[in-house]
Amino acid sequence: MAAKVFKNFIGGEWVESRSGQTYENLNPADTRDVIGVFQRSDKRDVDDAVSAARQAFERWRLVPAPKRAEIIYRAGEILLERKEEYARLMTREMGKVLKETRGDVQEAVDTAYYMAGEGRRQFGATVPSELPNKFAMAVRMPIGVCGMIAPWNFPMAIPSWKLLPALVCGNTCVIKPAEDTPLSTLNLLKALTDAGLPKGVVNVVTGFGPEVGAPIAEHANVQAISFTGSSEVGRTVGVTAAQSFKPCSLEMGGKNAIIILDDANLDLALDGVLWGAFGTTGQRCTAASRVIVQKGVYRQFADRLIYRAQRLKVGNGQDESVEMGPQINEQQVATTEKYVQIGKNEGAKLEAGGKALNTPDHVYGWFFEPTIFTDVNEKMRIAQEEIFGPVLSLIPVDSFDQAIEIANGVTYGLSSSVYTRDVNKAFRAMRDIYAGITYVNAPTIGAEVHLPFGGTKSTGNGHREGGLGAIDFYTQWKSIYVDYSDRLQRAQIDTE
C-alpha cells in the first residue's frame, strides 16, 4: 500500500510544495515502515506562508486575547482526547517509548491550558506620572509574523512551547518542523484548526534546514525567530537575525551534570541517573551526560548503575515493555559511535555498552546500547561535548566544591542536578551552579510548562521558553501617555 502523502498548510489550505519534490519519513525503529511522504519545500513556499501570515495578522491581532485563549484551550481539550492516537504515531515517527510520547502530547496539553490562562493575564503596568493630570501605562503588543524552527526530539511539545504563547499574544506563525518528525507538528496543527483557529494564523512548511529554515530566518517580513536545535545551527540563525535586528530566541545544546554526594539516597539517585541519561535514548538537550560522584560512594554507585543499564530493554517503543528506543537516524548512530571511540582513545574506561545493536530484533532500526564510561577526566571530550546519544560519563571527585567547579566547567549551562540530604549543600548548589535549571534530588530532565525553560552560556542567548519567559519574548512593550491637562506639559522641563 502506498504511503500517505502529507502537504504543507498555508493560508488555511493543504498545498503541495512549489518544487514538486517530496521525501519519505521513516520509522527509526524499523526503517521498512514509511510514516508518510512529506513536502520538500523551498523559499517559494516560505514566501507563500509568510504572505498568508501577514494577511492573517491584521485580523488576528484584533481578536481579544481572552477569545484567542479560548481557541487554545479547546485545542488542549482536543489533544487530550487524541492523546493515545497522537502518542502512538509519535512513537512510530520519532522512536521514543510510548510512556514518553504520551508525556510529549501531555506537555502540549499542559501548555495549552497554561497559555489559555495568559489570555486574561497579559499584564502591563500603570504608574504615576511626574506631571499633573497625566496618565501613564505600559501595555504588551504582539510582534507580528513569528518564524519557528523546531527539533525532532519533542516533536509536539516544543512546537507547542513556540506556537501557543505566540498565538495568545496575537502573533501569527510560520513553523518548520524537523524533517525527521513533521507529522507530530501537523497533528498539533490539526488540533488547533479543529478548535477554530482562523486561516493563515499558523502555517506549516515541511522540509530541510537550508531550503526552509534559512529562508524563514532571512525573510524580511518575519519579525521574530524562535529556534531550538544545535549550537552550530543556532549561531547561524542568530547572526542572520541580528542583521535585520529581529528578536531571536535560541535554545541549543547542553552537557548536563548530576552531582551525587556521599550522603545521597543512592537508590533515588540511581533511578534518576538511569532516567536522566537514557530517557529519550539520551537525545535531549537536558539529558544527563555527566555524573559527578563523590569518591565515598563512587564505586558502589558505578557498579549498581552499570548493572541496571546493561539490563535496560532496548527496542521498538511501541512495545510497552521496552525501556529505551532507537536513535533518530543513521547519522546520530554514527555520531555516538564516533564519541565512543574518542572516549576509548582518551583513556576513559568503557564499562557498559559501546556499540550499535544489530540483533534480529534491532537490524532494521537505529539502536545503540546504553553506554557508560567510568574514571572520566572532566577535560576529556566525552565530558565536554554534547553527544546526543545514550552515552554517560562518570567523573569521580573528592569534594562538594570540586563537584560544583566541574559541573560549571563546560561551555553549556542548561540543566543541572544535585543529590544530597544536606540542606546547606543543596542551597549552595542552587546558588553556585551556573545553569538555567537546577534540580535537587531529581534528574536533569522533567521541566514543567509554567516555569521558564532555557540556559546560560552556549546553551542560549538569554531568552526563555515556557511560563512568563515565552510571553516576554512574543510581545513588545508600548508605553502610553494620556495628558488630560488641556495644556502643553513637557516632561523633565515643566516639573517645577
Short synopsis of the structure:
The chain has 496 residues and is an alpha/beta fold. It has 14 helices and 21 strands.
Structure keywords:
14 helices, globular, 496 residues, Aldehyde Dehydrogenase, Chain A, domain 2, single chain, 21 strands, five-stranded parallel β-sheet, 2 domains, 38% helix, alpha/beta, Aldehyde Dehydrogenase, Chain A, domain 1, seven-stranded mixed β-sheet
Sequence-ordered SSE layout with sheet pairings:
Elements: E1 8-10, E2 13-15, E3 22-27, E4 30-39, H1 43-60, H2 65-81, H3 83-94, H4 98-117, E5 125-128, E6 134-142, E7 145-149, H5 157-168, E8 172-176, H6 182-194, E9 202-204, H7 209-218, E10 224-228, H8 231-243, E11 248-251, E12 256-260, H9 266-278, E13 288-294, H10 295-310, H11 330-346, E14 349-352, E15 371-374, E16 391-397, H12 400-407, E17 412-413, E18 415-419, H13 423-432, E19 437-440, E20 456-457, H14 467-473, E21 475-483
Parallel strand pairs: 7-8, 7-10, 8-9, 10-11, 12-13, 12-18, 13-16, 15-16, 18-19
Antiparallel strand pairs: 1-2, 3-4, 5-6, 6-21, 14-15, 17-20
Helix pairs in contact: 1-7, 2-4, 2-6, 3-4, 4-5, 9-10
